[in-house]
Design a protein that fits this description.
By secondary structure, the chain is of the alpha+beta class. The protein folds into 2 domains: about 10-175, D-amino Acid Aminotransferase, Chain A, domain 1; about 180-350, D-amino Acid Aminotransferase, subunit A, domain 2 (D-amino Acid Aminotransferase, Chain A, domain 2, Alpha-Beta Barrel), CATH 3.20.10. The chain has helices spanning about 20-25, 70-75, 95-110, 115-130, 205-220, 270-280, 290-300, 335-350, and strands at about 10, 40-45, 50-60, 75-80, 80-85, 90-95, 140-150, 165-175, 185-190, 225-230, 240, 245-250, 255, 285, 305-310, 315-325, 325-330, 360-364. α6 (about 270-280) crosses α8 (about 335-350). The chain is globular and about 60 Å long. It starts with 9 loop residues before the first strand and ends with a strand. The model has no long low-confidence stretch (mean pLDDT about 95). Keywords: Amino-acid biosynthesis, Aminotransferase, Branched-chain amino acid biosynthesis, Pyridoxal phosphate, Transferase. It catalyses: L-isoleucine + 2-oxoglutarate = (S)-3-methyl-2-oxopentanoate + L-glutamate; L-valine + 2-oxoglutarate = 3-methyl-2-oxobutanoate + L-glutamate; L-leucine + 2-oxoglutarate = 4-methyl-2-oxopentanoate + L-glutamate. One of its GO terms (biological process) is L-valine biosynthetic process.
């Protein structure tokens, strides 16, 4: 599904966009996912017509019939990506082709229509060009992009839908964690799991996140920032956080991360970190790692750093791990050397401030 788009996007300008002065006030402290830009991208699909009616249109509500299939059977997928302001004032996307491929991987798993990768990419490009003034100029600012698709057919039969609506919305973003924490604490859930073999763990679908919310609420009650999930079969192996992948750095300079196997989301930031670490000569392993190993290695000093990574939070150190009847710290409970090195390099590439040897940046 890598064909170029054969649809042209019609442009419908917003009749009353947010005034520049009001927009600048918002961009001074946008938070994360709280406000949205003036426009959105939209494309429709039906089994008889294929993909059609592509447009950039004013951001606004979607009218839905109560029998719309997504409301009953949750055929829904999404992506998370960012646009960045470059030092010369231009804008860029980071590895958008990888998001396009993963979007279709999710679509196949959820029995949904696949979106031509060229159409995905063009929808994102067109929206960023239309709303580039919404990219915050503050340190760490970016334009968070949310492509998503859902079953829009009005029908209550239990089957894959024959109609879908694809949209892209954009939200100016500052830091993901409140207060810009130098490290986060995580709660190891013993009662809830995120995904099981054969399930939807590798798909970026809303149901995975809905299932994680009760465990995230538990983590917050226990004074932690995030929940970390263990495998569903043995409740022993570390998998990922509610929305981020995990890495572990040891005293010999090597690094490991849980392997992909259908229960872990194949993060694009995860893949980028693996590439950058190997470029730097770091010995990297993708292998199972248990909660007991994590605890023992932290106590012995063998484990020096743990960090989480994802599009929204980029690279975030994990300083403390809690669970039922235990708590342990990692290193100095703050950012470690390799964590900082990888984060600095990755952010530098994303923002056009460092060499891009792999051609990850697409300038718009």
């Amino acid at each position: 599904m890598s064909d170029a788009p054969d649809l042209e996007f019609a442009f419908e300008a917003h009749g009353s966009p947010v005034p520049a002065s009001e927009r600048e006030a918002i961009l001074a402290n946008p938070g994360f996912g709280k406000v949205f830009t003036d426009h959105m991208a939209m494309v429709r699909y039906s089994a008889d017509r294929g993909w059609h009616d592509a447009k950039i249109t004013p951001y606004g509500p979607i009218q839905m019939d109560p029998a719309t299939a997504v409301l009953h059977y949750a055929q829904e997928i999404f992506e998370g990506m960012k646009a960045y302001r470059l030092p010369d004032g231009g804008t860029a996307l980071f590895r958008p082709d990888a998001n396009a491929r993963r979007f279709n991987d999710s679509a196949r798993r959820m029995a949904m229509a696949e979106l031509p990768e060229g159409l995905f990419l063009e929808s994102v490009r067109q929206l960023v060009r239309a709303d580039k003034d919404w990219i915050p100029a503050i340190e760490g600012g970016s334009l968070y992009l949310r492509p998503f698709m859902f079953a829009s057919e009005v029908f209550l039969g239990v089957k894959p839908a024959s109609e879908y609506l694809y949209l892209v919305i954009a939200s100016p973003a500052g830091g993901y964690f409140k207060g810009g924490a130098s490290s986060i604490s995580v709660w190891a859930s013993q009662d809830y799991t995120r995904a099981a073999p054969g399930g939807t763990g590798a798909a970026k679908c809303g149901g995975n996140y809905a299932a994680s919310l009760i465990a995230q609420a538990e983590a917050i009650r226990e004074g932690c920032d995030q929940v970390v999930f263990l495998d569903a079969a043995q409740r022993s192996y570390v998998e990922e956080l509610g929305g981020m992948n995990l890495f572990f750095v040891f005293d010999d300079g090597s690094m490991t991360t849980p392997p992909l196997g259908g229960t872990i989301l194949p993060g694009i930031t995860r893949d980028s970190i693996l590439t950058l670490a190997r470029d730097a000569g770091v010995s990297v392993r993708e292998e199972p790692y248990t909660l007991d190993q994590w605890h023992a290695d932290a106590q012995s000093g063998r484990l020096r750093e743990t960090f989480a990574c994802g599009t929204a939070a980029v690279v975030t150190p994990v300083g403390t791990v809690k669970g039922e009847g235990f708590e342990f710290g990692i290193g100095n409970r703050g950012p470690g050397l390799l964590t900082e090195q990888l984060r600095t390099q990755l952010v530098g590439i994303q923002r056009g401030e460092a060499p891009d040897p792999h051609g990850w940046i697409e300038r718009l």
